[in-house]
Design goal:
Translation Initiation Factor IF3, 5 helices, about 120 residues, alpha+beta, about 20% strand, 4 strands, 4-stranded mixed β-sheet
């Protein structure tokens, strides 16, 4: 009985140690990372997406509409986005069949499979 009481106190103490209170007053809008969700409906949209990434936005790009409309045009668009991302020092990755994530030079996409994480 007594051992159970000590165990509960230790668990509560561990929970309290896991959370840190942040001071939101020191957060400046210039330090925030902007994340945009955009649609790629046509090859012409590539220029606008690249401009957003050059401005420092992380872009989640919906590609489903173009994939269903014209697969060849989608491949050209992805190739142009990939080349532009490499030229800017950024990163690009496909997520599922419907999204691309395009990051500017200050951000990287973490690429590690769930199996590799479990092995560590």
């Amino acid at each position: 009985m007594v051992l159970g009481l000590f165990k509960k106190e230790d668990e509560e103490r561990n929970l309290e140690e896991q959370f840190i209170e942040l001071d939101h007053s020191s957060t400046d809008n210039k330090q925030r990372v902007r994340v945009r969700i955009e649609d790629l409906e046509d090859y012409r949209d590539v220029e606008a997406v690249q401009r957003l990434v050059r401005e420092g936005n992380i872009v989640f790009l919906k590609i489903k509409a173009l994939r269903e409309k014209n697969l060849g045009e989608l491949k050209r668009a992805v190739q142009k986005l990939r080349k532009g991302s490499i030229a800017m020092g950024g990163d690009i990755v496909g997520v599922d069949d419907n999204f691309l994530v395009i990051c500017p030079q200050f951000a990287r996409v973490y690429r590690q499979s769930p199996e590799e994480v479990k092995a560590q």
